[in-house]
Structure to design on (530 residues):
């Protein structure tokens, strides 16, 4: 029945931003945050939830944590695909003054002007050539852990995203990933003293313009039509069948999941059906059948489905699911022939400009492949996160926001439900102008352990380009079975500064002190956007 319900949802679900919604772009990505190229002047404020869209399909949902006049930083609430620089971000502006409404209107008008075709004379006069855009950063982290382990570590990371457009005939080059070098000193574990952890998500030549009938990609591929297969080394092709409908196929070799190295023993192949939205409330759907094999033996075969829907004023739905088709050694191990192994649903209703409701269901769990075929099923079940969640967002005057949420997770092993709840309050320009204050608290209870985690934060928007933040809080873990309660305290501070149009730098530090040991970390990062 669950499988049938998912298919029904897929048939009725689809989304596209409303025609009157303002938008901005993704400017830069760090390990933990997504940075936007618009801010308070366009109606963005801390606490606002925004949607990342690509080709009319929702890729992720973000929470604005800080907004300057012309930029904003966000945390990721959830995503069904990778976020890339240049993705469009749509939101419901919080502007209440004439100036802010005009700014939002200017943003929309600019976007509409960009979509207009150039005049023939301008097109002939233009001399397009390769254009390189993207971002890169160099980040250094130093950590000192004491309290039994006494480990010192240094991590040097180089994350990058590159895009070379206009290579001719609709082709462009894309690359994204990170290079990471880790050095450790001390401790009594078996980890190496020096380690490289490189993660290359995409290095490919791609031709996938919306006006192109044929979409092609060659290299390490991360295109949306094959996103459920993960990055792979090979080729993908799709053809417009009619209007917004595309049919495609892809195949190649899967990299080793531990280190993303190139592999020649793990093959994958698949077919895809993609429906692109055609209007303000059009359908956005990706349906893919995927097979993964190791030395000719089946590892996993499944159908992946991702869709979003926007049905009316302020109402939207995001869904992702996977259905496993089990045969061979999986059937011999007692698995079902067809099993809904993953399902995630999130709905949002913006009741009015000041009130929004969110509800969701999460039934995702890891699955067995040839690499983990001997691992007991109980480990996979325990690793899954399953349950219901809901929340409400209230916007008050002067940009203040209150977010409340709660969740219930029911294990299948018969243990008691695990419950969690949280609240967060943003107060911009409080108690003085350009000083933002937020307070949060989270709590959870479960069959074995419970906890409480309050926190406070202050953010100061200084002279142009400066952003300072300080935060701190407590963690209290309560042993529901024994008497091994634990407490810890943490504090952090960071400074972020724009060095110009393309460069920025940041430094940060954090300390954790408590019953589980003390940890001190410091980090510095320099970023370039081009």
């Amino acid at each position: 029945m669950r499988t049938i319900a998912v298919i029904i949802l897929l048939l009725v679900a689809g989304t596209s931003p409303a025609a009157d919604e303002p938008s901005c772009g993704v400017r830069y990505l760090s390990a933990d945050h997504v940075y936007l190229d618009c801010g308070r002047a366009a109606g963005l404020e801390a606490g606002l939830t925004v949607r990342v869209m690509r080709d009319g399909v929702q890729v992720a949902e973000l929470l604005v944590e800080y907004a300057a006049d012309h930029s904003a930083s966000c945390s990721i609430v959830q995503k069904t695909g990778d976020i890339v620089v240049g993705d469009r971000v749509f939101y419901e502006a919080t502007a209440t003054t004439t100036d802010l409404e005009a700014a939002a209107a200017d943003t929309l008008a600019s976007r509409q002007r960009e979509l207009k075709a150039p005049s023939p004379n301008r097109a002939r006069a233009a001399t397009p050539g390769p254009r390189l855009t993207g971002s890169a950063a160099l980040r250094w982290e130093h950590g000192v852990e004491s309290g039994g382990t006494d480990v010192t570590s240094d991590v040097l990371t180089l994350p990058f995203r590159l895009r070379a457009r206009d290579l001719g005939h609709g082709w462009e080059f894309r690359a994204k990933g990170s290079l990471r070098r880790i050095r450790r000193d001390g401790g009594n574990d078996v980890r190496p003293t020096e380690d490289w952890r490189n993660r290359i998500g995409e290095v490919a030549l791609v031709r996938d313009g919306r006006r192109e009938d044929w979409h092609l990609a060659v290299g390490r591929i991360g295109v949306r039509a094959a996103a459920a297969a993960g990055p792979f080394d090979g080729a993908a092709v799709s053809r417009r069948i009619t209007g917004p409908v595309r049919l495609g196929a892809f195949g190649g070799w899967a990299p080793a999941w531990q280190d993303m190295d190139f592999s020649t023993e793990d093959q994958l192949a698949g077919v895809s059906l993609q429906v692109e939205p055609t209007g303000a409330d059009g359908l956005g759907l990706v349906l893919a059948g995927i097979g993964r094999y190791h030395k000719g033996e089946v590892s996993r075969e499944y159908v992946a489905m991702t869709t979003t829907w926007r049905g009316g004023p302020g109402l939207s739905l995001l869904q992702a699911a996977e259905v496993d088709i089990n045969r061979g050694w999986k059937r011999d191990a007692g698995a079902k022939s067809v099993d809904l192994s993953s399902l995630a649903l999130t709905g949002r209703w913006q009741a009015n400009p000041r009130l929004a409701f969110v509800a969701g269901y999460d039934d995702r769990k890891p699955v067995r492949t040839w690499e983990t075929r001997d691992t007991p099923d109980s480990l996979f079940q325990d690793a899954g996160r399953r349950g219901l969640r809901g929340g409400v967002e209230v916007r008050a005057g002067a940009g203040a926001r209150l977010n409340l949420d709660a969740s219930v997770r029911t294990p299948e092993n018969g243990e008691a439900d695990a419950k969690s709840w949280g609240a967060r309050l943003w107060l911009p320009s409080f108690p003085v102008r350009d000083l933002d204050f937020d307070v949060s608290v989270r709590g959870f209870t479960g069959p074995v352990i419970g906890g409480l985690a309050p926190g406070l934060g202050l953010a100061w928007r200084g002279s142009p380009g400066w952003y300072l933040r300080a935060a701190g809080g407590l963690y209290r873990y309560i042993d529901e079975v024994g008497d091994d309660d634990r407490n810890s305290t943490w504090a952090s501070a960071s400074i972020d500064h724009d060095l110009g149009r393309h460069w920025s730098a940041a430094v940060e530090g954090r300390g954790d002190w408590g019953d589980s040991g003390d940890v001190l970390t410091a980090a510095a990062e320099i970023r370039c956007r081009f």
Notes: Residues 17-130 form a domain with the Thrombin, subunit H fold (CATH 2.40.10.340). The chain is about 10% helix and 55% strand. The longest helix spans residues 98-115.
